[in-house]
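Re: your question from the hallway

Yes, I did run it. Sequences:
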Amino acid sequence: MTGLPRIKTGFTPGRIQKWIRPIVIVIALAAISLRATTFKVTLDKDTIQLGDIATLSLTFDGANINGAPQLPNLPGLQVVSSGQSSQLGFSTGGKATSTTTFSFGVKATEVGEFSIPSLSLKLGNETLTSEAVKFKITRPTPPIPGSDAEQQSLALLRIVLPKKEIFAGETIVIEQQLLVRKEGVSGVDGLDVPPLQLDGCTTAKAVQGPQRQIVVGSTPFILVPFYVPVTAMKTGPIQVGPVDGNVVVRIPSRGRDPFEGFGFFNSGVQQRIALSAPEQTLTVLPLPEAGKPISFSGAVGSYKMEVSAGPTNVGVGDPITIRVQVSGRGALDAFTLPDQAAWKEFKTYPPTVKTETEGDLALQGKKSFEQIVVPQNTEIKELPPFDFAFFNPDTRRYETLHQAALPIVVHPTGATPAPTIAAGRSAPETQKPTADIVHIKPRMGTLSHGSTPWVKQTWFIALQSLPVFALVGAFFWRKRIDSLENNPRLRRKKQTEQIIADGLEQLPPLAAAGKAGEFFATVFRLMQEQIGERLNVPASGITEAVVHDKLRARGLGDGGADVLHELFQLCNQARYAPVESAQKLEAVIPKLKMALRDLQEVKG
Amino acid sequence: MNLRIQVLLTFALLGIANLLTAADATAEFDQANKLYEEGKFRDAAESYSKIVVSGNSSTPLLFNLGNARFKAGNIGQAIAAYHQAAQLSPRDADLNANLQFARSHVTGPTLKSNWMHRTVELLTTNEWTLIAMLPVWLWFALLVARQIRPELKKSLRAATLTGGALALFGCFALIFALNLRLNEKTIVVTARDAVARFGPFTESQSAFTANDGAEFRLLDAKDDWVQVTDGGKTFGWLKTNAVVLLN
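Structure:
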């Protein structure tokens, strides 16, 4: 919805609620120096006319306020800061006094009784509270047409309907008139009129017309018209207005202005005039069902039609371009090319559309359709008649524009070049349009059920972590290998652990097989390997003597030393008197394991 | 019943169900083709649509659906079907020919395609993903090989650097393609002479008229309105019931 051109007033449209509930608001101040302080909230008017602006003042007497108070959002009121003023003086006692006043503009857009609630202000430990301010918003009463009051008004607002009854789909132009008295007003400095509120209508942008002078009664006025094209979309009564606004006019100074007549300065006094245009009713009638032609496709207005077609000498399957141009006054966007029942013998394609409007109001223009039709057989001798129907609101009846049949010649084969398609996307000139689409496929192919991209599937995202894990694994594996290679003791320890693990696995089968020689040789070798690794000496040089000489010194306990002795003894005995009992051999294995564990605890 | 037998039976039943569904779809497809050949394009389009709505899709199915809609005079709906088919087979020559042919019938403002979009539309999303992820995997394989066989580090140096660059390029290409494919939404107008307005209200002033088949980039959505642009200076709000979302 568009309205008249606006002069900025600092307000935005909003809903005003009646009787705001009293609330207590804490106002935050930037910096305050505290003295004996009073806080007062006043409004310069008790009654404000709709669209007019009143001044709200917050006065702090006795306090030096350094920061502007931020008023909280007052539901239902549009409040905008308009500045501050301070006064310094001395009291009768000789003390310095300070009065600071913050001013706000208050505007309402709905009639009713309103209240600015009690405001509380924290100043240090003290809380100051103002009294609630009540006021009324009234609608300005437009002067009665022809009355003296009308002639004496500085400015007037009028809504002029071209007619009181229109039809659905019809477009009319509503005129909003601003009248400014010629005498006593030297200029207009601001205009704030909200857009027309029309339910069930589409409204185009308002267009300002040329100013002209008119006489109201016997008083000359300057009339500034604003034209608003409106198209009715639903039937029934539609309320137009009321429209309330204001205009700021300049009134010449009473005293003589030395610059008057030169036009260099905006001399004079500004005055805001509340404007009000009363509500009017526009009745939207439904289009009559009686007599509605088949070819009616929603056009309402007054139109002419021109039809042309070419080429008219074609082969079967060759396209013929039919151009239909509908021109006239009405909503050109609202209708389409009517379906033509008589075109059964032709293959038809959807028409292309081009709309051109004229003038600022775009109330008239032309709509061009280009439709391609393809004759299907050689029996066709003419392009069928073409009808376009519209409803004319002036005559209140449907009218049909008729184009008679156009003779054509259709050959058995297509030899005529295909016409180019009007307008549209640009294509290289060398690229010739294809005659028709590629024919359908005989086989359905492999069916797929849904096609969520891989990147949106969890399994795929999880799969991408595999190379990362592989790299991390390889990295740590490499670190371990490197640390082993750089630490011979650790490497030997790992090798010994492997040798012992392998050896312990070999012992039970040897014991079960009664191979005492191999059994004790393995036991001896395992003890050598473990002791050699602990003492960091070659394993082949280890004998029983090291148990006393070195292992005890490194913390081998008595129990462990005894078991080692026993095992060494058994190994020695086995060379001369082999033990053949499997049970006896198997009994050695736990002892060996215990001895190896004890050895692993010996300091290396 | 043995668990293994239960699993086998389940798979067998699923397989049979799939076969039956495929058989039904094939019969419906053949019937739709017959309607098309008889010149009953609207009926054919409805039959093809039934198969698609049942959850099945294939390039020929969507191709034929596009053809039927085009012949029935619904250019926008046809372009939507061709687009769907192009998601599966972006380099299908017949499909591209028909899509271009349908587009050539569209007048008025429509989306201006640029080389970036044309490049991205050469491959499916999965193909872009594969092209991007293969060098990434190759690069990681080289990095792993360097850890396992440090003596190969020197000889693999050039290959690793190249692999890394390719992986990086692939990732950027994938992000770019996904951004265009998944984030930039395109709509096609399916109504005749849809009026685009300056705001999402019926009362808003008319911005331009979008014809059936016009494609636009989707910018915003509010209630039952979508804001669109042709990629140039044309912007407007269209009713959602006049458009179809393409991707």
